[in-house]
Fold this sequence. Notes:
- The structure holds 2 protein chains of 2 kinds.
- By secondary structure, chain A is mainly alpha-helical.
- Chain A has helices at 2-9, 12-50, 68-75, 77-108, 115-127, 130-140, 147-153, 169-194, 198-206, 211-238, 243-248, 260-269, 274-302; strands at residues 53-54, 63-64.
- Chain A has 2 domains: 2-50, no CATH class; 68-302, MetI-like fold.
- Chain A contains 13 helices and 2 strands.
- In chain A, strands 1-2 form a two-stranded antiparallel sheet.
- In chain A, a hairpin with an 8-residue loop joins strand 1 and strand 2 (63-64).
- Chain B has helices at residues 8-12, 45-73, 77-80, 95-103, 106-137, 143-152, 158-171, 178-182, 190-199, 204-212, 217-228, 230-246, 249-254, 263-273, 279-314.
- The longest helix of chain B is centred in the C-terminal third of the chain and has 36 residues, at 279-314.
- The radius of gyration of chain B is 25 Å and the shape is globular.
- The N and C termini of chain B lie close together (10 Å).
Amino acid sequence: MAAVTLTATLSPARRRRRWREGLLFGLLILPNLAAILVFSYYPTVYNVVLSLTDWDFIAPAPVFVGLQNYLDLFASPEFWLVLWNTLVFTGISVGGTLVGGLAIGFLLSRRLRFSGFTRTITFAPHMLPGAAVGIVWLFMFDPTYGLSRWAFGLFGADSPQWTTTSDWSLWAITVAYTWQRLGFVAIIYYTAILDLPKEVFEAASLDGASGWRLFRGMTLPLLSPVTYFLLLTGIITSAQAFDIIAVLTGGGPGDSSSTLTWMVYDEAFSQFDIGTSAAAATVLFLILLVVTVVQTRIAERKVHYS
Amino acid sequence: MSVGLPLKAPQTSPQDPGTAPAAVAPVAPVPAPTRGTAPVSRRPLWLSVVQYALLACVFVLFVVPLLWLFTSAVKPEADIYTWPLRWVPTSLELGNFVDAWNSAPFGRFFLNSIITTGVGTALEMTCAVLSAYAFAFVEFRWKKAVFILILGSLMLPGHVTLLVNYITVANLGWLNTYAGLILPGMGSAFAMFLVYQQMRTVSAELVDAAIMDGAGHWRRMTTIVVPLCTPMIVTGTLIVLIGKWNDFVWPLIVTSTADMRTLPIGLQFLRSQEGYTNWGAIMAGAVMVAAPMLIVFFIGQRRIIGGIAAGAVKG
């Protein structure tokens, strides 16, 4: 009733105009919205449905099995190994890129000669296809003809069999992935450091703060929104790293370098076990969701927004 | 909002360590000879030495793998399978590229990559610009809700949607087709947000003046808004283009025949053809896959880094 009286107070011309604006909005937004609904939202929801079924792509329809896939998953030692691998891979690559990236970003902001060129080279790997980066590292890791033999040889040691032994395969993908992402984090920190308000630092150093104290007391807190952003997106992207794993180890040997993302792919497209793949994908989604929610909570309390 | 600007200041000013203006973070007006935060104008010698040494380390860390990629691609076999390691090729062996080109249909991979990247980028950027304009200039009651819905899709992990999207595409009969490769990646949230941020800075007077002249939305968009937002549209295009060229997992599952593979997947195919150990040819293949993006990056690096940083630092 209220709506009727509201629209009745508008002149017919204005009402027509508002209607036409709404229609135009719908038309402009339609291709984008449709693509996002069909290829992002719908699959996220339907994936949960698939995780409650048993299917192999061939049978006419998925068979409902309830929570069986999850129970099987939680009962299998492989799943826990994969989860542990994901934790190690994500933890080390995110931690490593944050610490290394902050150091490099800080160094690049010191206006040294050649730092412009170094900046370019640092960022370049992030622009390259992960498949190509994987190939380069695969060759460098080669224990007979690769750079690794030379590097370990400097210390009189033999190169480990990086990609072919289960003791080293997880390290191989972690090192290569961290290298590719490090420059990205460094450049973001570099930009953020140049953006920091100068006046605050001048005031602080007039008060006698300097060196490490200034860095810990001022720079780090002022960078915390960026750190928070990099932490969150870092976890989400490294938990989904795929191309480097595919090229370097293919998740092997055994499951030694298999992450949750690799498992989602492998179960569906090598084992044709759709239910298990969907269940693993749902676990991945829930983990990332929890990470996002927890971090947002912490950020609301702790992050310093200038 | 001055998106894209953060990098201009350091790049346009001279990179002279001695006289550069003190725009760097912790700046002390009085000489404070402590680690890391010495004043820019007067830096003790030992600190300069340490900083340059560290800079050199960073440079080596990133340049060595890149050099390894390019030198290995032109090394003759004798330079690859030898010890001690030869850093510089003794002769330039372009045969590696011929090998790679002959043992895998690289011409076809290139064509597929160019089509999927080109058409895909054009479609996604069209989506991005149209929706950014709608959000910035067209009135609609539930605009905010739609905006949150689109940006919220950035939070949905792509690997969770993989399986269902594969089933959708298979049901549509799009496996091994360009439609299957391209259309699922058409939706735009990140590039849309970048373009939207710049559209909001377009002055209202300019738009109002156009309305007075009787220009409809289409005229306003094509003659005022889009030209003024070209910098961010170019930035978005470059970022989207690189992402599509490098895409790995989607082309991997949605194509199964060699004639529909894109370059990154073709590289894996080449490895299987070359028995995994003919490093010269494999590295030549990797160069062919990587070089186009390196060129794009070196040409457009200021815009690319600016856009990515704008999304991170200001967003």
